[in-house]
Amino acid sequence: MIAVARSLFGRRARLRWVHLILGGALAMPYVMVGSVIIGPATGSTNVFGSFPLQLASFGVGLPIAAVSSLFPMARPLEAANVRWLCDVDTDRIASGPARTWGERGRTAAWFTLHIGFGGIIAGASLALPPFAAVLIVLPVFAGLRGTRLGLPEVFDHTWALALSPVAGAASLVALAGCAAGCGALLARWAPVLLGPTPEDRLAAAEARAADLAVRNRLARELHDSVGHALSAVTLQASAARRVLDSDPEFVREALAAIEDTTRRTVGELDAVLGVLREGDAPGTAPAPTLAADLDGLLRRTRAGGQRVTAAVEADPEALPPPLSREAYRIVQEGLSNALKHAGDRAVVDVRIAVADGQLEITVENPLSGSASSRPGGGHGLRGIADRVRLLGGTVTAGPTAARTWRLHTRLPMKAPVRKEPT
């Protein structure tokens, strides 16, 4: 019983009832236009004084309503009502205007059903409750038994009076049942008539994939840029603190490197966050490349006391900008891993060369702990793997027999950059 009562009078049923009442309200202008046609056609001067003529006006108004709903903006307006009042999942209803005639035709069919069911339920909702209330109180108020209310003569009998409250309550339940049934039918048909087409679903999937690709790229940029800066600044500050009294010149160099690192990172962070701020223009700081900042990257890393040897056997100026940019991030992440895992006394070897049309990048440093794992890592290596995959290259990373950690990538010099994976 509780489930039945909830299905008839629960929140979902009430909202769908309101949706039907709105459909009845939308039907009124079309009924008026229909009455203008039915009146002269039947010679009647009072169309609304006859229930059959009212139904005829309603029937004439429905095709007119279908034609008026062919405008593209009819679909988003109806879709908004369906989402709020019919309890239909948002992703099952299209949000944009109808673009094709097929979409417009389905919208017209939906609008006709909405105002058709709505007109019937709205009319019953206006007429039936007062009549049901009279039936319920009829045995108590004798003055209502006359003919002023137009009640049938059967209510003059005692048995009819005794059953009238039951009939009144039953009529209200029947109205609620009809409203709930019509609302459920409209909710079932809404995804069919107002739902996205396969083209809409494909466009939405492509939009989500593009958004995800942008987010993944921003996450990689933030991790590589900010992560490297924090690792470098931490190492530089630690080294400067240890020799604060004994080597002031080194301390000055370390502080200068910290200043330079943080300034550059703030510029890169502004560029990345500018993409995330809705309505804001992206930051103007250019993405670093091997040609523009490889020497600076090595200098800032060495300023913290880290010993770095670099063999650059390729001309950074000759590299395509996308390749130079991604290669810079790979070298930067390799140095960041070395800063975190190799210790400040270890020597980090960086080699950049061109062989067989491939740009080879190797970053190698001694292992300070277990040769089988590097605690705390993982995100940077995944970012490198993503960058290499987008460039169509290969990457290997792991311990070697000589107890070193070796990161080695091969990137095609002329291969087009692949799209982000969906």
From TrEMBL:
EC numbers for this chain: 2.7.13.3
GO molecular function (one): phosphorelay sensor kinase activity
Alphabetical keyword list: ATP-binding, Kinase, Membrane, Nucleotide-binding, Phosphoprotein, Transferase, Transmembrane, Transmembrane helix, Two-component regulatory system
Transmembrane domains' residue ranges: 20-41, 53-74, 109-142, 162-187
Keyword Iron: no
Domain Histidine kinase/HSP90-like ATPase: start-end pairs: 326-412
Catalytic activity field: ATP + protein L-histidine = ADP + protein N-phospho-L-histidine
Enzyme class: transferase
Gene Ontology cellular-component annotations: membrane
InterPro entries tied to this protein: HATPase_C_sf (IPR036890), HATPase_dom (IPR003594), Sensor_HK_TwoCompSys (IPR050482), Sig_transdc_His_kin_sub3_dim/P (IPR011712)
Gene3D superfamilies per UniProt: 1.20.5.1930, Histidine kinase-like ATPase, C-terminal domain
Superkingdom of the organism of origin: Bacteria
SUPFAM superfamilies named among the record's database cross-references: ATPase domain of HSP90 chaperone/DNA topoisomerase II/histidine kinase
Domain Signal transduction histidine kinase subgroup 3 dimerisation and phosphoacceptor span(s) in chain numbering: 215-280
Keyword flag Manganese: no
PANTHER family documented for this protein: NITRATE/NITRITE SENSOR PROTEIN NARX-RELATED (PTHR24421), NITRATE_NITRITE SENSOR PROTEIN NARQ (PTHR24421:SF10)
Protein name: histidine kinase
Source organism of the structure: Streptomyces tuirus
